[in-house]
Amino acid sequence: MKKNDIKVSACIIAKNEEENLPRLLESIKGKFHEIVFVDTGSTDRTIEIAESYGVKVYYRKWNGFADARQYAVDMATGDWIWFFDADCELEEEEYERFKRILNIIKDNPLYEGIGVIYKNIGLNRNIKGYSSTVHIHKKHPDLFWEGKIHERIVNKNTKAILTPPLSVYVLHYGYSDFQTQISKAKRNLKLIFDELKNLKPTDYEYYVNIFYILQSYNVLAYIKKEKYSKKSLRYIEKFKKGLNLMSDESTFKKHFYVYATKVYINLNELDRALETIEEGLKLSSSYPDFHYLKYEIFKNKKNFNKAIESGIKYLESIDNIKIGIITDYIFVKNIVIEDLTKLIKESKEKSKFIDEITNTYKKGKKLNIGRLLFNLIKDNNSKYAEKLALKLAYLYNSDEVFNDLGKFYYERMEKDEAKKMFLNAISINDNNIEANKFLYLLNKEEGNAEKTFKYLKNYILLSRESSYIQELLDLAKKIGLEELAQKIEKRLKNL
Fold first, then answer.
1. Taking a C-beta distance cutoff of 8 angstroms, is the pair 304, 343 a contact?
2. Phi, then psi, of 72 in degrees rounded to 5
3. How confident is the model at residue 3 (pLDDT cuts 50, 70, 90)?
4. Tell me: the pLDDT tens digits for 184-213?
5. How far lies 478's CA from each of 457, 471, 475, 491, in Å?
6. CA dist., res. 214 & res. 256, Å (int)
7. What is the pLDDT of residues 362-420, one digit of tens each?
8. Which of 5, 8, 151, 320 could make an S-S bridge to 147, C-beta 3.0–4.6 Å?
9. pTM to 2 decimal places
10. Using CA atoms in the order 225, 151, 290, 322, what is the torsion angle rounded to 10 degrees?
């Protein structure tokens, strides 16, 4: 920031982050008064990389996240602190947004921090969800970090922190590798159980930690579903005892119903799952995750009409929420649209459902209800479906609708129109997996080796589909990129 501006210190705590650190430091260099880096025991090239960017490097023996963050604050000289995790990246427009927010609130003594919403990048390099925390705050003696894990900045007098209704978005790659997620969950559990030893069942923080146990078990259930789901049962009952300590607006309370319902689904206790999600819906009747889980429950019960009704409500809830909502299931909408299309076409009440969806779409011209309608009518009413999808694509600037149109034209053998749609999708989101795959296929059919190579490379990197690697290497050699082929082979061999 400029010399006359408020001084903002970027702070990082890290250990063994040589893979992630260059991306972060490249995105924040030159933007802050200083970059304070606290290393907690790296044995790789982390410190060397940090020093190469001219950051201020300090060392701290590990004693939990809050201790490391507070040490970074103590070493910083800025008026404000912005914490970055090593697996993050700051986009230029979000840095500009931050400067505007800071300029708005700088003279208001009540505001002590600014919320950060993390756009969590999933395994396919697309956004899989959002999470939020306060990672930007004033440097002030009344503000300090607490909690060995899932730490937070608080005011020692109020045990809270006041932020404006404005947030900054940061890319977070911590979910882009499945093994990393598993390792973090196991690490977190050890820290949480240590924290619980110092807490009583009458403490609010006790139930916060119980919540994070459920969260970690939810991740680990992907590798051992029955084992970790059964382990969760005990902590579901424990958390219920603290529900009265939390407001109905509490993120912990809302997500408890998500995690508990998922446990019961995993254990095939579908009636308990349904009962639990209905309790959640009393808290928030428009929360997408609740409707998605209800949809999943009814599918497992083979009650497909009820599943269709819940799936439609799930899509409606997505269409009516604001960006940035904290959610686990909003980004499975494409799968739900595909499944609903099949279920509705097979339903004896197909006409009734299509009429209801058509009426709902006409009332609001909403994106995901419109996409569902397009998929339902494109075979029998192609002209209206095409017109509908084109309107949605340009109205919402949606790469997903351009994908829908691209596949629509591709199936109809209108290859030029298909290519145009997929290129539109790429122009909006160059990480669009489907668009890259179809552009690879279209250019392969045309015999354009260079573009075939380009889109196939993108597709493999985004999807991690290893079965295409040999074709990619052959293409690289065909267009005279033998050296690059060797590098690609080295990079992709572990996919």
1. yes
2. -60, -40
3. very low
4. 889 889 889 988 888 899 988 899 899 999
5. 14, 10, 5, 19
6. 8
7. 999 999 999 999 999 999 999 999 999 999 999 999 999 999 999 999 999 999 999 99
8. 151
9. 0.81
10. -140
The closest of 77, 72, 85, 110 to 28, measured between CA atoms, is 85
Q: Which run of H or E residues covers position 58?
A: strand 56-59
- Token couple for 434: 């489907």
Q: pLDDT category, 181, cuts 50, 70, 90?
A: confident
Asked if residues 371 and 401 have their Cβ atoms less than 8 Å apart, the reply is yes
**pLDDT value at 345 more than 60:** yes
For tokens 């979910």, the residue is: 175
Q: Positive or negative CA dihedral for 16, 18, 21, 25?
A: positive
Helices in 412-465 by DSSP H: which ranges?
415-428, 433-446, 449-463
H/E run at residue 246: none
SS3 465: coil
DSSP, collapsed to helix, strand or coil, labels residue 335 as: helix
CB 57 within 8 A of CB 37: yes
User: Which tokens is 268 given?
Assistant: 């095939």
CA–CA distance, 79 with 281 (Å, rounded to integer): 43
Spatial CA neighbour of 376 closest among 400, 402, 350? 350
Average pLDDT over all residues of the chain:
91
Q: What does 31-72 look like in DSSP terms, one character per residue?
A: SSSEEEEEESS--SSHHHHHHHTT-EEEE---S-HHHHHHHH
Token pair for 406:
């691209």
Looking only at the bridges linking them, the beta strands covering 152-155 and 143-146 are antiparallel
**CA torsion, points 387, 389, 392, 394, in degrees to nearest 10?**
-80
Amino acid letter, 270: L
**Most distant pair of Cα atoms in the chain: their distance:** 69
pLDDT tens for each residue of 327-339: 888 889 999 999 9
Q: Residue 197 — φ and ψ, nearest 5°?
A: -60, -25
For 12-65, the pLDDT digits (tens) are 999 999 999 999 999 999 999 999 999 999 999 999 999 999 999 999 999 889
